[in-house]
Amino acid sequence: MSGHSKWATIKHKKGAADKKRGKLFAKLIKQVEVAARQGGGDPNGNASLRTMFQKAREASVPLDTIERAVKRGTGELEGVDYQSVTYEGYAPHGVALLVECLTDNRNRTGGDVRAIFSKNGGSLAEPGAVSWQFSRQGVIYVPRSVDEEQLMSVALEAGAEDIVDEGENWRVTCPPTDLPAVRAALEEAAVPFDSADVTMLPSTSVHLDSEVAAKAVLKLVDLLDDNDDVEGVYGNFDVADEILTTLSLED
To answer: What NCBIfam families has UniProt attached to this entry (predicted)?
Structure first.
């Protein structure tokens, strides 16, 4: 699992995600609304909406709240015209970051993101300076206890492109549009999985081998994640599990 993915998982288990449930709900609802606006309100014909619908349900967002967001996206209810904007930059120690936002005020969001970078040892970069290091992929994390042959049989037939052993998990990757089909195939075959999402995977990673370096990068990532307009932060860093565990135990 990438450094950011591992850190997000640890925070969720620790309970930090529950403390910010209201903010998480708001971000997921916004993503549902935008997906419906871009591809229509039928999840069966809109892979992005189906993925976001499932993600919101897994986070315990009420069904009627999700359905209202879909209606705002399709124009049945009045909604906000959110714009998608991506910022590229560098965290301390040369770590590349992509910051994806949905906003109704680009000036506000741009100023906020720039301030977070500059006040925490990072810097914004020109468009294209960082994005070439990442590719958008559907990613499913499956417990390592699942039999590899069974997983390959089910996932590859459904459209998965690769299965990688990451220690505690299998990482299954596929094109973003195939994520709903691969997920559905795993569910039908009763293959358990920890998460299924569309994300940005780095081609190479910067290894952070000290607690000081990890703290500096994760502080910036967490502050960006906490911004109301930020929908996703993706980094090309990797942190040793023992360092992440130590940091997770701190207040």
So the answer is: PRK00110.1, PRK12378.1, YebC/PmpR family DNA-binding transcriptional regulator
